[in-house]
Structures are given as structure tokens and as C-alpha cells.
Design a protein that fits this description.
By secondary structure, the chain is an alpha+beta fold. The chain folds into 3 domains: 231 residues, Glutamine Phosphoribosylpyrophosphate, subunit 1, domain 1 (4-Layer Sandwich); 238 residues, HUPs (Rossmann fold), CATH 3.40.50; 67 residues, no CATH class. It contains 28 helices and 18 strands. The strands form 3 sheets. A 7-stranded antiparallel sheet has the order 3-2-4-1-10-9-11. A 6-stranded antiparallel sheet has the order 5-6-7-8-12-13, covered by helices on one side. Strands 16-15-14-17-18 form a 5-stranded parallel sheet, sandwiched between helices. Helix 10 packs across helix 11 and helix 27 packs across helix 28. It starts with a strand and ends with a helix.
Length: 675
Amino acid sequence: MCGIAGALTLSGAPLESWRFKPMLDAVAHRGPDDAGYLVWQTGRLAPEGRSWGQAFLDDEFAVDSVAMPTINSRLGQQNLTSNKWDLFLGHRRLAVIDLTSHAHQPMSDRRNRVWLTFNGEVYNFRELRAALQSLNYEFTSNSDTEVVLYAYMEWGDKFVERLNGMFALAIWDSEKEQVLLARDRYGIKPLYYSRDGDSFLFASEIKPIRVARRDKAAGVDLIALNEYLSFQNVFSDRTLFPGVAMLPAGFVMTANMRDGRIESRRFWDFDFSCPVERPTKTVIAELGDLITQAVRRQCVSDVPIGCYLSGGMDSCTVTSIATKELGRLASFTAGFDLSDATSNEMAFDERQLAERVASALQTEHYEVVLHSGDMEAVLDRLIWHLEDLRVGQCYPNALVARLASKFVKVVMSGAGGDELFGGYPWRYAAAVGSSRDEFVSNYYHYWKRLVADDEKDTAYTKDAITGLSQEIGGFTPGAHTLQAFQGVFGDTVVASNRDEQIQQSLYFECKTFLHGLLVVEDKLSMANSMEARVPFLDNDLVDYACQIPVTQKLASLDKLRTLDENLPRKKMAYAGMNATTGKVILRKAMECILPDAVTGARKQGFSAPDESWFRGRSEGFVRSRLLSERCRLHDFIRPEFVASTIESHTSGKANKRLLIWSLLSLESWLRQFNP
């Protein structure tokens, strides 16, 4: 698990060498164990037309066993500044598999023809290694990185289809004079890119791109802002930073330095549209085997592994299997002080159930308890690392990640189980309609979590509306967000009946909500130099889960009713949300290894009791941040709308916790990235 960065010039003009080390330093937190640099001069810049490159070590990590100059040494600087370079690849390493210098990156083949900078883990690397050895490839390390390198050399850009894991990578092929970027199937690892004049920039985070572009007050992408203020997420590939995009999950992109062409293609996508009918007993047995196999695959590591352990079934499943595989391991839970909580929030603290599971599994269990007021203490640092604002009130996640990083370098989570197996039945109830068009309309209105379309004229400032209308070609803000919503589904939405509509809901949430959670998880874990793994997103398991009919995932579908996620348990039960409504087949598959208290528990998201905290101790902070004269948010959101939102929440008329959190996040983002 690492941080990568790179730059190339599409016109032939040389890159500015001052960019290279600062770009990599901007993601030093992602890789505290090693740093490497590659610069390259293609025939476009060399008088004799010879393509060649030079690799550098970082002075902080120089080792005698690697025969390279250090980048800040006299020789290194002379080499760096006396030549013209049109390609740069950089790598910051968090050493997890093969801790030796043999796994140093950027890594090349023996002829120095192909170079790789790689972030992630490939869990089937041993099988791929054996296949490549049978094809006469010789390995000098025990890392998955070298396997990925030779997989590209053997199978070309289709090599990504053979990788089972999480990754964001860049490959320089000097013979083709082409850079290939790729991101894993599900988007577990982020990869951003930008066109800056004649330069093409990319990195694991946006900070290196900003360093290379010398961004200070670069403005705000109003289209992305409109999406975020509608969905608390960005459904397109945009970010709040103008000109910076995210490579979509399951995509390969190539940049050819000979002709300047940049092309991309999708190599994989979720597909819930072809369910396979199997006897329930067969599915339960096969699903249990696949989940066990997935967790075991992801137990490979040369450093300690721990697990997030809430009271939920998914994290308990992962922890239980990992414990059987690895023996005693560390587990981590975040709980909440509920002394000021409302009745709706009393179930938010899952420490008691997590402790019972930890006791049964004999894990080395650690907890962090959050109190009202903790949010403001961590907000700015959290937003600095998050950069790319996405779903949820994630400061509890940040604090439990900080806790886990004090004990382990790798942590497993249960992310993905809800989205694959139908863990949000009230959302599907909100979506189901009598026709395809009604389904799209219902679902769109459900996902407008923050500012409704009919509020935008009074919520947005005049300048924001004018700028947005210009950017989206005269569309209204609401028309644009509907278009962004529909764009997630592609050209056609097959949703003529209830089952098809729920299948489309599962697809949509894997592409948007789950993707947002994964981006957040990556940023928060890597902010603490820790790798987060998600066993439920194993290729074999996902492929199988997509084929399970919704009738085996959900029970009592006809009784589902639309409801607010924040309702107390009694109202949940009244609306058909009993303990076994969602994830039915998963619960049955896990009954043999988990306590009844887990498999029978109601679905509960990981959230702090902010409804009450924003009316209590945190209210002063909310008002001081969002209503002050120096509030940067007022350039885009009218102060009257912000004040009305706060008053509506603090008076108890409505629960505006999601919107208030998002406004606080945006204000912190603007102060730090657009001062």
C-alpha cells in the first residue's frame, strides 16, 4: 500500500524538474518506509534520438544494496538538472509484503524497458507468479509488485483483468512510449489526473497535482459542487478542484507520448442483471466457502493485521474468519457517549455487542469513545486528508483509524457486504415504482440528501447560479443533477418490475455510495500510514454475489415501506424492517460461525449522534464556523439559507445533521484549499 505520483509531457517540452520531489513529498504519509523516483528522456528530447532514464533513491531511505544515486545528492542534482526529462514516475512505499529493498519502486524489468509504480495489494499474486514462472519469467523479489510488472509484459493491457485485489498503478512502456494508468474494479484505491497545459499529471491524491500546478486559489468546480450539495457525493468523475478528475473504477487509461493521444476503456463493471436460480442450501454453502476464501486470501502480509469490529455482521464475519486463519489478532471499535443522545440515536453505540464478539473470538480488543466536541477537534485535519469530499459523517472513522494505526499496519473492514447483499431495504422501498420512469424519479428524489432542486434558487448565491449555468450550458442546477444521477446507470435502465428495480438499486449503490465509502476509507487509513483491506470485494465473491437473486437477499419485499434511516427501532419494525429483512442469504451463510445476537441484529450504520450533538455542545462551533462574516461558504451558499438550516435543526423542527456536516466540511475545504 503506497502513494504514487507522476507527470509526462505530451508536446515534447521538458518537464520542470523542481516538481518531482515535492509531488512525492505531498503523499509522504501514504508511504513512510521508502521513496523512489524515475525520470525519463524520450527520443523527442535527446539529440541522438536515444530513449533513456535514470532512477533515484530518496536520501532518507538510501541503502547500500540499491545501486542508485540519491535525488538530493550532488551527483543526483547534477544529473537531474543537466538533462531534459519528459516523464516522471514516483513512489512512496508502505512496506507490507516483502519488506526488503528488492521490492523498491518504481520497479523495472531486467532490461529497464518497462517501469511500474504501484499502490495496492494483489491477493492472487502467488497463482499469477506460478503461471508467469511457467512462461520463463524469473523473479528477484517476493512482492506482488513484480508479479504485476511481468503480468503486463506477458498479457498487455488486459493484465488488469487477471488481478484480484485493490490497485491504482502507472506503467511506463519505453518501447511504446506510453504510460498506462489503471484502477481496480471497485475503486478501492483512488487515482486522480489532470491536464496542465502540455503536462499530464496523476497521483494517488490531489495534493501532488496541486503542487505541480502551483495551485493556491484555483477556484471551485461548480458542477462537482452542485452534485455534492445534492447527493453528498460526486457521481461524475469530477472533483471540487477544477481540472482534476478521478479515473473511474474498473478503467484503464493510456497516454501516448508520440502522438499525444489519451484514451480510456472500461475493463469491468458490476452486473446484477442476470441472476442465477440455485437452491438456497447450495447458495448458503457456496457463499460461506467464498467468504472464507476471500478473507483467507487477504490475510497475506509480512506485517501485523487487525480488524475493525463493530456490532455489525460484516465486520464480525471478517474478524471471525481472520482469527481462525491468523490466531489472536487486534480488533478496534469506536463508541459514542450517548448521555445527550435522542431516542433515535440510542442504538448508535455498538461497543457492548462488539465486546461480546471480541470476547468470544479472543481478540486483543481496543476501543475509542467519542464525545460531543470531538468533531471540531479533528475536522480540519480530516478534511485536509480527505480532499475529495464524499459520503457520510466520517470523523468517527478517522478516530478509529488513528487508534488502529497505533497497533497494526494493515486492518480489515466489512465494507461491501451491504451493497452486494441488500443491506438497505428501506432504500429499495423508496425506489420501487410501477414503471421504469417512476423508479428513476423515486430513486432520484431519495438520493437528494442535502439541498432539494426546488431550494437551489434560494440556497445558491446569484454568482454561483450564474457560474453553474454557464458551465453546464444553460441547464438548471436541478436538470444537471438529474442528468448526473441518470448517467450512473448508463444508456439504458432495465427496471420494468420490482426485482429489476432492486437490481438497478444494488448496481447504483455499488457505483456511488460504496465507491464514496471506499474513497473515504482509503484517505483516512493512509492518513495514518495504514492499509485497509475489504475482503467482501474479492473478485470471486463479488461475481457470485451479483448472480444471487434479490428474492434470496431480501425478505418480505411486499411489506417494505419508505422511511427515514434515522427512525427509532420501533418505527423501523413497524415499517417492515425486522431483524431479517435485508442480507437474508448472508445471514444464513454466517449463522454457523457467528453468535445469534449478530446475525439477528438490525442493520445499523456507523454514525455519531450528531442530531443531538449539533443541538448541544457542538452548536456553538457550528454557528461560529457557518455564520461568521469570514465564512467562505457564503460565496456559494446564501447566508440566509445556512442560518435557516441551523435554526431548523437546533429548534428540533427537522434533522439536518447531514447537511450541517456537509456545510462544515465545505467550509473547512474552502479555508484550506481556496484561502
